[in-house]
Amino acid sequence: MGLMSTILGEQGDSRRKEDYVSLSADGLSMEEAAAGTNIHFARIGEKTDVIEIKDAIYDGDIVIADVTRHSTQDRTMQHIVDELQQVVDEVDGDIAQKKPDDQIIVAPTGVRINRERLGK
User: Fold this and answer.
1) What is the CATH number of domain 3-107?
2) What is the pTM (predicted TM-score) of this model?
3) Contacts of 107 (CB under 8 A, 6+ apart)
4) What's the pLDDT tens digit per position in 38-63?
5) Cα 73 from Cα 53, distance rounded (Å)
6) What is the enclosing helix (H) or strand (E) of 39?
7) CA-based torsion, 84, 88, 91, 93: positive or negative
């Protein structure tokens, strides 16, 4: 079970808001500690799933997308990456796919994805 399976659940599982524990920073509730940027986890199963990801990027949020349903040789996958790349170019963001994991990280304006691993 990989990181994305842990976060998103196995295929067919559905996660609810109640499945997560809310943690607060310095005793502040999440409502009181409003963030300018949110991190979203998404699963791309078909091309229409890209719409919400694009909206999040335009809103200034970061998206970590699971693309396990598609191979890197898949024509649909190439179309999805092209659409996300276009959004990233428009907002001067960044996009990276971590190999061999089936994740695409999409970042908005002012956020760069460092391609070097922390630690050893």
Assistant:
1) 3.30.110.150
2) 0.69
3) 57, 62, 88, 93, 94, 95, 113
4) 999 999 888 888 999 999 999 999 99
5) 21
6) strand 39-43
7) positive
